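Exercise 7. Predict the joint structure of the components listed below.
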Amino acid sequence: MRNKICFFASLLLILVMAAPALAAVGCDLNDPDRDVARFFPESSGYKTTYVSIDKRGDETMLRRMEKRLGDRFHGIYETIDVPYTIYEIQSGKRKIGYIHGVNQKGQFGGIQVFVALDLSGRIKSFYIQKMTSQWAKKLRDPKFGRQFAGLSLKDFEAYDPATGKGSGRMAEIRNPAPEAEEDFRAALRALKKNLILMDEFVYAAEKGKP
Amino acid sequence: MINRFQIAYRNLLRKKARTLLTLVGIMLSSWVLVSLLGFNRGYEHALNRDIDNMGYQLMVMAKGCPYEAATMMLQGGTGLRYIEQSMVDDIVSRPEVDKVTPILMQAFFDPDKGDGCGIAGYFGVEAATFPAMKPFFRFRQGGWFRDETAAEAVMGFEAAELEQREVGDMILVPEKNVQLKVVGILERTGTQDDGTIFVPLKTLQKISATDKITTIGIKVKKDADSAKLETALYKLPDVQVVSFTQVKQTIMKLVATARVMVLSIAIIALLIAMVGVVNTILMSVLERLQEIGILKTMGAMPRDIFILVWTETLILCSSGGIAGIGMAFVFARLSDILVRRILPYAPGGELVAIDMKLAFLTLAVIVVVGLLSGIYPAWKAGRVRPLESIRSEG
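Solution:
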């Protein structure tokens, strides 16, 4: 019996080895049921949709997003085919908000930045799901996340990820771990990118509806 | 002076359409035969190569120690047991062993990997011995470690994707807060290696404050008795042996079964062609009874008539055979593509392997079987009675 299992497992391995390469990596909630209830306690359910820039638009859309971000989508992990997971949150039959996450290159590893948004695109909660850093604890602290509550893409327009400088409400954001300046800036860049993606994929499309 | 070949050739040209159709039949059969034999050989070679490329066939580790990264993760990085590195020298000296590589698996607790925390798994491997065990590894970026004590890491495709790493970036070993420089990122392999971070063995031993290892990977010599080696390894104290040899043997048995089917199809194709040869030559003999009778009255012996008719068979089979083999050579790559379409999970490399040796072997088979098929018509022609055949209506 064990030999048979071993054999079929190995056959499966051979089949998997021959399978074509998959697309770029997405960013999902580790435990959506738990996380949705935490961000939206009034929610009764959620719907998951998968979008990517190449499915919703083309190279022009990518360039437009880069321009809005003020930085290139660089590296081999910010490609046009990266799948983005959007959680549409519902309370009964009513839509009450969204949760969306992006991957971001950090100093020592990938950072997964999630944001919970209301229907107007205003931040309800900000959450770093994963970060590899000696100072990750400080940046993952809810106190840091609370600084972003109420902000929207409009506020982030005054933030330049390339220089790490911002004005208005963005200038008030404090880095709780000055030793991890690189990761702090990475988190802010991820958040701005996250809001731009949501605007392009969701809010702009909704505004366009009759 | 006209020779026997010329006569036979002219006889064949008398009924051009029939001769051509028979030739096409033999050509197609030869094409199928040589392609199937080539596929049979090419597929087996490719599969053998793929199985060998899977890496080591045997793993030795401490009893009860998880041997898969996934199991190690499920156990939360606990349950690791160690063996002495000196055991590597013990094993490498055995006659059945081709190569060995020591491995140290380590899992570190990462409190900031999700809410439930996470485990980061590392494989300590030797740059000198490990790459030879995984010849199918291809680098997307960079290469292996500079030396065995370098503070460097090579990342599997998915590990690099998840951590968004590129060559030159740094990673941090959680718990230990040791920084390592990424020097290589592997292409996707579809195995657990995709999610693995490889670190020089000595570096990981230093980080983990141990001089031991968890696993020894063993590649067995091609024709060695791996079952015997397995039994011998079980005698080592407190170790368990995990073997992939049986998997290989089972796959090869399946291939052998498929080979019988392939050869059966080839034989059927050959038989169909030969029935065509018998039909053509026999028809040709029956149509020329008067002519054969006249040849006999002129002094031709039954042996001469037999050889003349047999020569026609020889010309037909060798020309058809050569044309078919030529077609098989010309369309080998196309056959390869078609086979891959039908078998999407076929092993890598050349699937239809045709060379001159196989071509000559196929030609010999076609000619010999053709000549055997020509015996009856030739014998019938040799037995023709001159007076009866001349009197018969033409």
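Discussion. Chain B has 14 helices and ten strands.
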